[in-house]
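To close the section, here is one more complete example, presented without commentary so you can practise reading it yourself. The ligand is S-adenosylmethionine.
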Amino acid sequence: MRESPDDDSGLPAGVISQFWKELQAEHLRTLREYGPETMKRQQALRYFTWRWSWSALWRSEQFRFLLRCSAPFDLVTAVLSKTDLDDSRWEGVAWPRADRRLYCAATRLIWRYAERATGRHPALRLAEPLLGSPLPVSLRGRLISQDLANSALELSAMERGGASAPLHVLEIGAGYGRTAYVLLSLHERCHYTIVDIEPALTISRWYLSQLFDPDRLTFLTPEQIDRVPRASVDLAVSISTLSEMTPSTRDSYLSFLDEVTVRGRIYLKQWMSWHNPVDNLDVHFDDFAIPARWVPILKEACPVQTQFLQAMWRNPG
Ligand SMILES: C[S@@+](CC[C@H](N)C(=O)[O-])C[C@H]1O[C@@H](n2cnc3c(N)ncnc32)[C@H](O)[C@@H]1O
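Output:
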């Protein structure tokens, strides 16, 4: 990677949507108040860790999917497994006890679904790091998490799309680094580049640099993306990101990915359709300006988050 601060000619400043400017301010306040140590029960709940509440359950597509796709034994296990609801174990999470119980049951259902759907993907054998204070959900005597289960489903799709042993992964908008954790753990020779805005960049750097050799990691702001050499990326990943950006930022990132992934692959998981209420934008995955030369490999509705599409392409260059 080039390191000169003078060559920062990536995306122009001001690339952040109003939606993310508001979340940025909220996440910065939380970071100042709690530090990164509790981020898995703070900022992560606005990344890809879904909250579950009884009051919103009737309109939860995820819950309907889990009910439809769970074996009766899994439903019983999810509800009856030992659940730690003690306030001391849920510090910083001001949810009613009933919602904590629901969160644990839903996480177990996602976990069991991921085990069955992926044939117990190796991601499910990884330990959920205690770093960042994960919520206390256990199954069969071990700590589990929604994030590991969702990552197992995503990795299994990436592998079906031919990304088996990537040496350089680039992720746009990595949150705290849940996907990086899994890919870096499973591919020991892999280097990981994250492009993100603050404070996510500070949080993922804090997290991943304690779990992996910092030589395997590069963190870039949107203004620094020109540091990524052309055709250097085997696998580009972006999950729940592009729909939340302005159209011009999204287009710039897609052109950037086109440059850096020549002879590599691109995996996107994004809302099929979403209304961004802050910027007042209606966003549809099918309207994204996917570069014409990308060869489609897969495109399907996601399991669990059924209102998301996952798609993968090969960039022949
Ligand atoms: C909903 S979170 C998803 C996080 C992560 N992909 C995951 O699945 O856990 C959206 C991510 O996009 C990042 N983001 C928002 N606007 C961005 C921009 N203009 N450039 C890069 N990243 C951005 C946020 O900081 C955050 O990390």
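Once you have examined the tokens, check your reading against these statements. The chain has two domains: 22-144, 152-314. The pocket of S-adenosylmethionine is lined by residues 15-16, 20, 47-48, 172-175, 178, 195-197, 200, 222, 239-241, 244-245, 249 (CB under 6 Å).
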